[in-house]
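Troubleshooting: if your tokenizer reports a length mismatch, compare your output against this known-good record of 376 residues.
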Amino acid sequence: MIEFDQPIDRQNTDSIRWDRYDKDVIPLWVADMDFRSPACVIEALRKRVEHGIFGYTHEPKELKEKIVDYVYLQFNWKISEDWIVFIPSVVSGLYSAASQYAKKDDHILVPRPVYHHLRWAPQKAERDFSEVELICENNRIYINESTLQDRKEKNTRLFMFCNPHNPGGTVYSKKELEAIANFCIKNNILICSDEIHAGMVLDDKKHIPIASISSEISKKTITLMSLNKTFNFPGVGTAWAISENKELRDSIRQGVGTIIPETQIFGYTSTLAALDEGEAWRKNLLQYLKKNRKLVQEKMTTIKGLNLYTIEASYLAWISYEKSQYKDLSKLFVDHGVAVQPGSMFNEDKHFRLNFATQSNILEEALVRIQRALKN
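Known-good structure output:
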């Protein structure tokens, strides 16, 4: 746990998160962590750099086998090596899915709120889409079959899913996934499932890939995964798509190597090292994040007008201020030395997302500043 408490100066490192605001502002907006990647990843990159030649590359021959083992060990999902396709990022996979799995006259379903690229992908592909409002029960947000049915059109072809949910932190149960899967099977709808936060479930729940629910839904789903978030190397990371359906696999790679870059050598190196030796670090990370989550939970209960949704995974707190008189808290917080992600990014006003993957003392100070901003 000590390694996560160690302060790391990210100023002057060309960090998107730390360079946008003045030095006296604590940036809790962009979703990367203020923790060094595992020592095994750093050492693997060091050895690769010391080799000194960084030519064109291909995937390591053992990587797919290790991903098969990882997916089974972590999620109890049996897949085959030939189901795996490497892509440069989950984001590129989202955009490819929207353009490849839905034709020009097809319709797409997108959750709301959700990570903005799931919404932007249909827009960029010039596909018609509808946003499906998430339900809130007992402070937990999720989507179900009835909400999907309400927004479905006759030409709905694709559902852009996100599990664990970003920004809400929801981990879908097997029962909830079965309902979504049955809806898509019944209506002949494909699923593109963003599961990049799958390795960061904080409690006793288990992440269940929706494609693992049944053989039938497996053939209708492309699952996007990566270790970029879990092991904190988005700047060098890679991703992979999993599908039993060869047509979906072939389609997701459209443009890779031309307008979409191939996965590069440091992404492969980092991913392989994390798979081989990163598990102990991941478990320690989850314990630290649970400690930070508790800090956020305790502080939010003392601040009138703010409501923290249940956080079941990752390091992102989704917070509502719908019951307050404020129109945009993000600017007020910056004026008091804290930057958060405005809810407008997720198409949900009067909300904000807070990244608590930083040193606990920094997080505590940021929460004090938020409280002070609202008092003032």
